[in-house]
Design brief:
alpha/beta; Rossmann fold; 2 domains; 6-stranded parallel sheet; 9 helices; 42% helix; HAD-like_sf
């Protein structure tokens, strides 16, 4: 029986993937460079923005400093219109109406979360019990694919789940779904890009469900009230 739900944030509830790609494209464009398709495919599976900086430096023979890159990325990010992912609002409101407590477990930093909160803070504050940042939270020592951020998020509910098997986790990245599976929760892999990936078929098969969009989620599959 599902009693609690934990969401990843980036790419699962909000379309930060598109914003990240656009922001990095702007950073590269200012230096007379163009993002490759291979680089675009790399971005959805990062678990920290410094990995983007490292790849930029390696692929484009640059020497961007960490602080310089992050400040530029945050500035570019703040100019973007960050939208909720299709189906996110409907699903969250539906779970809320069923008295299912929800949390967010993200690998994003507080600086980026603050930008997202500027767009959708009122919505999340109303429906989401709490969020845990693997990047900033002192209790989380390991990033995804380690399950720690999900375990911390689960225990912080005012009434924690009896077992992680009572928790449903929504994730959109390979690193995230690995962590969700390792946490022993029921996991849903939400990815239009990777759902048919032969390379990751074994991992996808281990998740409870793989869907292209939150719009395709059917609550009744997990014993929840249907829409």
């Amino acid at each position: 029986m599902i009693t609690h739900v934990i969401f990843d944030l980036d790419g699962t509830l909000v379309d930060t993937i598109t914003c990240t790609i656009q922001s990095v494209e702007s950073i590269l464009s200012k230096r007379g460079l163009q993002m490759s398709e291979e680089f675009k495919e790399f971005i959805p599976n990062i678990n920290r923005f410094d990995h983007i900086r490292q790849k930029i430096n390696a692929d484009y023979n640059l020497s961007l400093e960490r602080k310089e890159f992050f400040q530029e990325l945050v500035k570019e990010f703040s100019l973007k219109n960050i939208k909720l992912m299709p189906g996110a609002e409907r699903l969250i409101k539906h779970l809320y109406d069923q008295n299912i407590p929800m949390a967010i477990a993200t690998g994003n930093s507080k600086a980026m979360i603050d930008i997202i909160w500027g767009e959708h803070g009122e919505f999340f504050q109303k429906y989401i019990n709490h969020f845990v940042s693997a990047f900033d939270d002192p209790e989380v020592k390991n990033l995804k694919p380690d399950p720690e951020v999900f375990l911390v998020a689960a225990k912080r509910f005012s009434e924690p789940p009896e077992s992680m098997s009572n928790v449903l986790i929504f994730e959109d990245s390979i690193t995230g779904i690995k962590g969700a599976i390792a946490s022993q929760a029921r996991s849903i892999f939400v990815s239009k890009l990777l759902i048919n990936s032969i390379e990751h078929k074994n991992l996808i098969d281990k998740s409870a469900l793989a869907i292209e969009s939150l719009e395709h989620f059917k609550p009744e599959i997990f014993g929840l009230k249907p829409y």
